[in-house]
Amino acid sequence: MLSNVRGSLRLSSEAWRYLAVLASISIIAMYVEMVVLPSLLTIERQFGITESEASWVLPSETLAGLAFAPILGRLADNYGRKRVLLATMTTRITK
Length: 95
Hints:
By secondary structure, the protein is mostly helical. The protein has one domain (2-94). It contains five helices and two strands. The mean pLDDT is 84.
């Protein structure tokens, strides 16, 4: 993945592809959280809850991710990382 050319390290095209995929995943994750932030006030009103109760919306997604990490890891072992990553990202984008 890395090659040393005259004292400087260069990434291979495969490494750049991995980097692009990981950057895209990070951007999508940040976008999803940014979309939720402005809607917290609406969530409070719709459900008749307090601000502190509505603030649990953001960490709940992270907690769900933590809970599903071992399951997704097992699925990745059985079906392949690419398939599981594609399925989880498709689910995240379309929700």
